[in-house]
Amino acid sequence: MLTLMLLAATPFSPPVEQALEHCSRAACSSTEDVRVCKCLKPSLEAVDLMVVDGPGERRVLWATNGLSGDVTDFAVQRVDLDGDGAKELLVTSLMSEAENMSIRTWDVTVVDGADELAVHAVAHDVGLDVLKGTSLLLTEWAFSPAKDGQEATVTFVGREFTYDHGALKASKAPVLRRRYTPEFEKQRTQALAQGPLKTLPARTFLAHPSTQKGVDELPSAFKPATLKALTREEPEFELHAESDDGQLVTLSTDGEEGPLLRVGDARTRRLYPLRYWPHEPEALLLGRKALLAVEGGRATGLVFLQ
After folding, report:
1. E-strand stretches of 80-200
2. 300: which of 18, 97, 115, 238 lies 20 to 30 Å off by Cα?
3. 216 with 140: CB under 8 angstroms?
4. Number of C-beta neighbours around residue 10 at 10 A
5. What CATH number has the domain spanning 222-305?
6. What pLDDT, on a 0 to 100 scale, did the predictor assign at position 196?
7. What pairs with residue 264 in β-bridges?
């Protein structure tokens, strides 16, 4: 069971397993006026869900992934992230754990405090320090294969975001990158062994002197394009683009219908989080001019909005 204690946030009760209709297994965490539950699908045709009930008659739900098989491996905090006086819900739920390096993949969702809307992202190795003030540190592992005589590298990357009514905004903080070295491996292994939850102190890791500060570089090879259409197949979506030379390209958030989509902003030189799904992806993407990264003449899935 996971309990995250975040500064300036109202804690929920630890998740408790209980029987819920239409769930093969479920657990809930609550305060006086809000209940958040993780519901594992009752059949192969269904999907795993996170469900928020309250305040009042409000219900917000979204598809998640319960590959870990546990239903108590999520945490909820209530904190005003956008300064409007209404406290948002920050819900972090474990989706899976890879055997290699024990990398844990988390569903990170912010449910708005005033409206029935939410923003979703995926992060790796979410820890106790995901939230600092109103800034969210979303981290991921980046793997670069050996190329042109250079050895393969593994890097821990952190980007700070703030919440703004159904969307995440890049903060002015630099992108942080720390290479995975034997020293880092030892530090991380010790942190993993300190408790059964395997939550990791990401901010501490990235405060190391070897951490480099920078931006997300634009692709060296790209095609200018216009983003034409978006097809929702929740919990995924497909993005349809047309390059300036007339080529039609389909990108998808799960990589099944075309290259795996990753969106960035060319002006701020910042990638959005993994599997980023704002409340209105159409408003963010449709009609926008973009740079489609290419390799060998084919789109890689990386899209920088202009």
Report:
1. 88-97, 104-111, 118-124, 131-132, 135-144, 153-163, 168-170, 175-179
2. 97
3. no
4. 14
5. 2.40.50
6. 55
7. 271, 304
In the chain, domain spans: 10-214, 222-305
Residue entry with tokens 């039609």: 248
Residues 6+ apart with CB under 8 A from 149: none
124 falls in which pLDDT band (50, 70, 90)? Answer: very high
Within 8 A by CB and 6+ apart from 42, the residues are 22, 23, 24
Count the neighbouring beta carbons within 10 Å of the beta carbon of residue 68: 15
DSSP state of 150: B
Q: Binning pLDDT at 50, 70 and 90, where does residue 197 land?
A: low
Contact 38, 96 (CB under 8 A): no
Element of type H or E holding 249: strand 248-252
118-130 burial, b for 16+ CB within 10 Å, e for fewer? bbbbbbbbbbbbb
User: What is the distance between the alpha carbons of residues 19 and 28, in angstroms, rounded to a whole number?
Assistant: 10
Token pair listed for 130: 């995901």
Q: Indicate the Cα dihedral angle 305, 126, 253, 134, nearest 10°.
A: -40
